[in-house]
Amino acid sequence: MFRLSLLSLLFSSLLYGESLSEEQRVQKGEQVSLMLTQTLGGALKSQLQTGGALKALRFCTLNALSLTDQVGQATDTSIKRISIQNRNPANGVSKEENTMLEQWNMLVKNHKSPPPHVLVKEKEHYTFYKPILINNEVCLKCHGHLEADSELAKEIRSAYPEDKATGYKMGDLRGVIKVVFSD
Questions:
Q1: Residue 2 above 70 pLDDT?
Q2: Are 137 and 128 a contacting pair, CB within 8 Å?
Q3: Is residue 79 a contact partner of residue 30, using CB atoms and an 8 Å limit?
């Protein structure tokens, strides 16, 4: 049986002026989230392998926002990583997002999973939220418990004086990927 790829399905719907189905909107949010995760994750993995956590931090400081924007441009979406415990103030949350993340944090603290995603219909667009869980030990190199006088901790404080993104442990909710798009 011939199966259309997600992108061809999305583009054909847009080409003929048809609205996306709920399932297609969720698939689009999942695809864009995955693209961002693979783009940033792949780049950070490479930096870690070639120069350790300091090199990865420096790379992230200089490139994470622009790589995120590139994924958004490539997918015709607006995409961000947001968190209550943000490292970069640009990744802060709105009042409503804060409430959602606090609820999700309570689920995780009670050993329950947050929802795999949330899709919200807004006036002229949709917002897709996907949780980011600490599910890889490598994440803890920069987001775990750091020795206050370590070179990495000093560099984080220098680059991000208002950093709140350390102290995590495996399984914690780091934040969400937020994807905004039109039908």
A1: no
A2: no
A3: no
